[in-house]
Amino acid sequence: MRRKSFDFIGKFLIFFILLLTLFGAAAQAEDYLIFVNNREFLGDIFFKGDVVFLECQWLPHVFKDQDLKIDNYACELLLDGKNIKCIKGGGGKLFVSGQALASSFGGKYKNNRETKTVDIYTFGEKKRAIKASAFRLNMGPESAKIDIVATSSPLPPTASRVVYTMKNLGISVEEYPLKVVFDDASKFSRGKDSQGYFQMGFSGKKLIKCEVHILNNLPEDAKTWAIAHELGHLWYFMNGCVYTDQYHSEGFAEWVGYKVCTTLGYGNEATMRTYNIVPVYGEGLRYYLDLESKYFQNGVLQYVRGNFKPPQ
Ligand SMILES: [Zn+2]
Questions:
Q1: CB within 8 A of 86, min separation 6: which ones?
Q2: How far is the CA of 255 from the centre of ligand 1 (A)?
Q3: How far away, in angstroms, is 103 Cα from ligand 1 center?
Q4: Domain ranges of the chain
Q5: Model confidence pLDDT, tens digit, residues 293-312
Q6: What whole-number distance in Å separates Cα of residue 166 and Cα of residue 31?
Q7: What is the rounded distance in angstroms from the CA atom of residue 38 to the CA atom of residue 47?
Q8: How far does residue 212's CA lie from ligand 1's centre (Å)?
Q9: Of 48, 241, 19, 47, nearest in space to 130 by CA
């Protein structure tokens, strides 16, 4: 009898510990944003210590242009001629270690606990700055395939207001061949809460096309913010900004949104965005606002160009 009850308590304890572990892992994973070559990874994940494991079935979304095969039987994946061992997770799904993925290609794995992001790059240091910006801005190798369209159509009123305001603020994108279009939600399946994205087309090093896509049913203040955010990315990219991680690039784009909205009288929208709980947006924005309060706008613009480092 005694033994039986011990068994029961023992089993119950083990079950309880397992339950804790599962919930612990889930809670940790849910808070995190994962980026692979600067594309957001939206498949299943779990953590083992600092290392994130990614659901293999989702990888084709981030390695669109690469040769990728998933071998369930051998429990490995083959990416651009490299074999990488996987492990089986729940429901027989295959998972690959983000660290193994990066190191197989001499890339970089970075878990930033403060911003709750993991950045995984499958290319080395030299190419990172260029490629990361290219991927983030949605160009990738596919940018070459974008047709060149003459953009004689004038910008929508909200967009021209944003462009004009940015010019007055000294963050001008007016000189670029801009086109702003509004799309319905079905075109925005790429990111969970994305309200905009943009594509660029180059002829050699010359930017010949920049198309900004914005969700079409946003109220005027949020629409203004979304356009300013995307054009903030454009300015960042065209001005050779040195920091390629999400925290800096999203934070900067949010900061441009903040500047434009406060200038145009959308102070509430601007204040609300400073409370964004997603670290790369909320904390990123607060970082740049803090930088600006200490070193003014010029300090911010010199910082992102790598010309100025604030004292620690
Ligand atoms: Zn963004």
A1: 56, 70, 75, 76, 77, 94, 95, 96
A2: 11
A3: 27
A4: 32-123, 141-304
A5: 999 999 999 999 999 999 87
A6: 33
A7: 19
A8: 12
A9: 241
